[in-house]
């Protein structure tokens, strides 16, 4: 059976390995914008063919589909989904794991997503205002006295674009003006007519639940948490994720079974709402980027229309059942036959990026990375290749996160493995990475307990999700 994978990052490397590990003897074909060495290894192992081309081009992808006639496809990144590559597969009669361009709007447009949650009264929703004028948004920020989160209205890669401003009444006008200026910086990244979304700010531990659906059956995967900030202890600019954790079992140490089930229900209700709004069945991954807050308990920060990266590297290696077959069943609308088995042991992922990422990708491009894969595997880790291209037998960075190391074991053991395996990676330029990932579990457990006490108290009083109406003058909005 032939499988066509679209994408070129560490997420797709992890999915490629799951396909070639399957007992179903899949032949893997792939399309990437550059030659990812990890994907290449798995394509060659399965006796498939690797194509280098534009993963966002409908015409190019259609040409490859007609050339190889795959039995099903898998779309990894968000941009091909936004550009209708899922639609191309279906127009060609090929089942695919990945929603249509209409379905992927749940990720592409934060305004559409928030409106959907309010229309269908889905729990975990936040109050928000959307602005098509950066001047109006800046005026709102300068006048409003509460805590807010300022975001681009559309998906722009999730790297360094979300700015949180705590604009309490006692803050100086200079700080308010600085926050207002950030509106223009964010708005310039957005192509849509609606530029800025401003939300009420919430706080608490973040986590992600990925759910597979074939439009009828819903299969929740193990929870994961990613670490967005570039530098140690959660400081520095936001990135696509400098590492992640998952486990033990289906959970995280700071999220209960009840919270897992509530989160699953939120994601399921949201997917059913998408189906109603688009008049088509959503097929593929839908992922809730969540926060445990005192307002709602499980609260939606945003949705992905695909698996997260680096969360995939923490989740997929822990699935002990045949994940390749589960993906096939999803594409073919037979997900009710799937059986998901998960290792109890956690996983910790550490991402490596060249100096310059995420703020100056010109500096981050063109560096040579050296890696001793055999030593890494001998010492209990695996590696997934991200933004690193195989050129003339050298690994050349393309400007983003280059590698992801993953280790499985209890958190302390996994971190020790990563520390050892890090020594087998070097670069012609400095690499940035975080060694604190997987080490601050107790702090997060304590934070979750504080939040849990608050939202449980609200729940007992019947005021879950209830807060003061949010506007500069205290009126309704």
Summarize the structure.
The chain has 477 residues and is of the alpha+beta class. The chain contains 16 helices and 25 strands.
Task: Describe, in plain words, how this protein is organized in 3D.
The protein is globular. The protein has 16 helices and 25 strands. 34% of the residues lie in helices and 25% in strands. The chain folds into three domains: 2-104, Rossmann fold (3-Layer(aba) Sandwich); 133-194, no CATH class; 206-432, ATP-grasp fold, B domain (D-amino Acid Aminotransferase, Chain A, domain 1), CATH 3.30.470. With 477 residues, it is an alpha+beta fold. The strands form six sheets. Strands 12, 15, 18, 20, 23 and 25 form a six-stranded antiparallel sheet that branches. Strands 3-2-1-4-5 form a five-stranded parallel sheet, with helices on both faces. Strand 13 and strand 14 form a beta hairpin. The N and C termini lie far apart (54 Å). Helix 1 (10-21) packs parallel to helix 2 (37-45) and helix 8 (134-143) packs antiparallel against helix 9. The model is unreliable at 472-477 (pLDDT under 50).
